[in-house]
Write a structure and sequence with these properties.
26% of the residues lie in helices and 24% in strands. The protein is α/β, with parallel strands linked by helices. The protein has two domains: 6-163 and 314-364, Medium-chain alcohol dehydrogenases, catalytic domain (Quinone Oxidoreductase, Chain A, domain 1), CATH 3.90.180; 176-311, Rossmann fold (3-Layer(aba) Sandwich), CATH 3.40.50. The strands form three sheets. Strands 3, 4, 5, 6, 7, 14 and 15 form a seven-stranded mixed beta sheet that branches. A six-stranded parallel beta sheet has the order 10-9-8-11-12-13, sandwiched between helices. Strands 1-2 form a two-stranded antiparallel ribbon. The longest helix has 14 residues, at 317-330.
Length: 367
């Protein structure tokens, strides 16, 4: 099917979740070493709501444009391939990155991040801020910015992988000082039931580790058990959830904590991580600043238990490919909480921001 000459996309002026606008633009054409993708599904991340509200400003190396197509995570089908370069010495033109029309692919968050630690320059081309995002019917990507997906996954499921699952994967397998990967005999605490935490619970359980999930909802905690979590803690009925973790581990603590709360949870994470453990800092749902008089002395707390405190900003293409092989081997199916139509994208973002979801929220772009 020939793509239309005019396509629809959503744009945010970064002035509020209720101010997104749909517009019609020309169909883009792929240049050298680029592909045109018909986007089928887009999944949402908390950062997308921050971009739309003009609040995604904690990366000093990133300057946001005044108006932008939001969102970074998509699954789609390659419909056209631009001319292919023969420069085999350029790491971004690796023949292994090439795809063909008809291939099902997902986006990578920062296309230039091929391997190793992410750099400031990579954040400068992060999709959905500051680079144009994927909440559009069609988009051109550099060939190195898309990756083929396992056949068993639906488009909606695969769209959940680029940020949520990848961030969880990096937290579990790539950030400990001596290179350990998650496995049997280890314990992971996942705070909450959002996209990253649920992805981490699935990955850790599939690898043979034990998982404790925290939430204020008993219903969500029951769903976490059904996904493979060994135990749960309702932090509303048991606000000293760090003591609960210690009690459940004979005072050893967790090997890895998926820390998404920020100012309101970090101190407790330090209190229940094991000696030599990892606190993977993912987000700040509880706030970006400590409450008055509640300063957290991270230097002392890290030394107290020889803790690694690591900020996680997604991961490189080669780790995404390794994660996809793991998902394929274990047949892990990402959890989709709710689906919205393309015309309801603004409502989908508002729903995500409300915090009632379990797993991922998906926008079905292709009708």
């Amino acid at each position: 099917m020939t793509p239309p000459q005019k396509i629809k996309q959503w744009v945010t002026g970064q002035d509020g979740l209720d101010k997104l606008k749909m517009q019609e633009v020309d169909l883009p054409e792929p240049g050298d070493d680029e592909v045109l993708v018909e986007i089928h599904s887009v999944s949402l991340n908390y950062r997308d709501t921050e971009v739309c509200m003009g609040l995604y400003n904690h990366h000093k190396s990133v300057e946001q444009p005044p108006a932008i197509v939001p969102c970074s995570d998509m699954c789609g089908v390659v419909v056209a391939v631009g001319p292919t370069s023969t420069n085999s010495t350029d790491p971004y033109k690796n023949p292994a990155f090439q795809v063909q029309a008809g291939d099902r692919v997902i986006s990578t968050f920062a296309p230039s991040h091929i391997t190793g630690q992410i750099q400031a320059r990579d954040l400068g081309n992060g999709l959905g801020g500051p680079a144009p995002g994927v909440l559009t019917k069609y988009r051109v990507f550099p060939t190195y910015g898309v990756v083929k997906i396992p056949e068993y996954m639906s488009d909606d499921e695969a769209a959940c992988l680029p940020i949520a699952a990848m961030t969880a994967w990096m937290s579990l397998n790539c950030m400990r000082p001596t290179g350990e990967i998650i496995g049997k005999g280890e314990l992971v605490v996942c705070q909450g039931t959002g996209g990253v935490s649920i992805s981490a619970a699935q990955i850790a359980a599939a690898a043979g580790a034990e998982v404790i999930v925290t939430s204020s909802s008993d219903e969500k905690l029951q769903r976490a058990i059904e996904l493979g979590a060994k135990d749960t803690i309702n932090y509303r009925s048991k606000p000293d959830w760090d003591d609960e973790v210690l009690s459940k581990t004979n005072d050893k603590g967790a090997d890895i904590i998926i820390e998404v709360g920020g100012a309101t949870t970090l101190r407790k994470s330090f209190e229940c991580v094991r000696f030599g453990g990892l606190i993977a800092c993912i987000g700040y749902l509880g706030g970006k600043q400590d409450e008055a008089g509640a300063r957290t002395n991270t230097n002392l707390l890290c030394l107290k238990r020889n803790v690694t405190l690591k900020g996680i900003v997604n991961g490189p293409r080669d780790e995404l490919e390794r994660m996809l092989r793991f998902y394929d081997e274990k047949t892990i199916k990402p959890v989709v909480d709710r689906k919205f139509k393309f015309e309801e994208a603004d409502k989908a973002l508002q729903y995500l921001f409300s915090g009632g979801h379990f797993g991922k929220v998906v926008i079905q772009v292709k009708e």
